[in-house]
């Protein structure tokens, strides 16, 4: 019997309790360390994705920044058709909507265009090969490897790439950063062997009944090297 004032806990029980606390503390430290390791791995993965999104598509074309489909969180295409390169034509478009001056704004517009093309126009993907924003970035659409859906007339999609300047350029021009970016994109395509060295530059209106790429922009591209309009396609 335990008398009054006597310790009610035996030494063995206390030692066992202390050991349980120690094991619990070690388990907590182990869990925290594993969480920290997992978080570091996730952070490194995110950094790798962001780096990939910025440089993929450059392929040695150091003067142009191409934001990959992963970079702007594109939807998966319903189908793809490989394009035969090098192509002979490069077609300039405008999106005829709002413009953007930051990457976040441009990504929002590009995603909206893809949704419109796929959900309303029933395209398999965003129609353009590339899109160019006033932030100075190029956004990968169907890219260098796939047939686009940007210029239906004369079967032009199978023998051209199409770049859409983001905005409406009937009454104004894209800014200098955007104009430089699309020129560098074309030069990049030539360098990569995706576009013929003697390619023909066209406005969308040259091969379709449309105002695209806008009056002001069309007047400008007519002064660029390789602009050669021919309705025969």
From TrEMBL:
GO terms for molecular function: N-acetylmuramoyl-L-alanine amidase activity; peptidoglycan binding; zinc ion binding. Disulfide bonds join 61-188, 100-106. Keywords: Disulfide bond, Immunity, Innate immunity, Signal. One of its GO terms (biological process) is peptidoglycan catabolic process. The keyword Cytoplasm does not apply. Residues 64-208 form the Peptidoglycan recognition protein family domain. CDD domains: PGRP. It comes from the Eukaryota. Residues 74-214 form the N-acetylmuramoyl-L-alanine amidase domain. Belongs to the N-acetylmuramoyl-L-alanine amidase 2 family. This is Peptidoglycan-recognition protein. It comes from Dreissena polymorpha (Zebra mussel). The lineage of its organism: Eukaryota, Metazoa, Spiralia, Lophotrochozoa, Mollusca.
């Amino acid at each position: 019997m335990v008398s009054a004032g006597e310790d009610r806990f035996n030494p063995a029980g206390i030692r066992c309790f202390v050991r349980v606390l120690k094991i619990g503390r070690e388990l907590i430290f182990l869990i925290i360390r594993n969480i920290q390791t997992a978080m570091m791995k996730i952070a490194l993965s995110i950094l790798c994705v962001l780096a990939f999104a910025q440089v993929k598509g450059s392929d040695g074309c150091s003067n142009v920044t191409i934001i990959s489909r992963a970079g702007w969180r594109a939807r998966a295409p319903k189908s793809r058709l490989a394009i035969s390169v090098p192509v002979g034509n490069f077609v300039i478009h405008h999106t005829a909507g709002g413009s953007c001056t930051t990457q976040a704004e441009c990504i929002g517009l590009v995603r909206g265009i893809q949704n419109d093309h796929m959900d309303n126009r029933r395209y398999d993907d965003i129609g353009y090969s590339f899109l160019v924003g006033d932030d100075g970035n190029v956004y990968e659409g169907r890219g260098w490897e796939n047939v686009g859906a940007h210029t239906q007339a004369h079967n032009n999609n199978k023998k051209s790439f199409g770049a859409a300047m983001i905005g409406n350029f009937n009454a104004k021009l894209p800014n200098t950063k955007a104009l430089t970016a699309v020129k560098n994109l074309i030069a990049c395509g030539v360098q990569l062997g995706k576009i013929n060295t003697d390619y023909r530059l066209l406005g969308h209106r040259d091969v379709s009944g449309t105002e695209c790429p806008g009056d002001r922009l069309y007047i400008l591209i007519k002064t660029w090297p390789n602009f050669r309009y021919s309705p025969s396609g």
